[in-house]
Design brief:
The protein is mainly beta and about 70 residues long. The chain has a domain of about 45 residues. A hairpin with an 8-residue loop joins β1 and β2. The protein is elongated and about 45 Å long. The structure holds zinc ion. The site of zinc ion (ZN) has 8 residues, from loops. This is Cold-shock protein. It holds the Pfam family YdjO.
């Protein structure tokens, strides 16, 4: 493992991410918009139609050199 931490801000980069959340108050179900395949996803926990929203989430980056061998 050999990488420097010169830019700590990039370690926990967060971005406003489009998500779908469950309208049911008793349910915490939600998913990232880019993980859905239908225009109106169904909650996997209570089968309610989900509503679109936004949430601050850690950015998903697939360019990390840590995972390359
Ligand atoms: Zn739900």
């Amino acid at each position: 493992m050999h990488y420097s931490k010169k830019r700590p801000l990039e370690d926990v980069l967060q971005e406003q991410t489009a998500i779908w959340s469950c309208p049911n108050e008793n349910c915490k179900g939600w998913m990232r918009d880019n993980f859905t395949f239908s225009s109106t996803p169904i909650c996997s926990q209570c089968q309610a139609k989900m509503v679109k929203g936004e949430r601050m989430l850690a950015a998903v980056l697939n360019t990390s050199p840590i995972h390359s061998k």
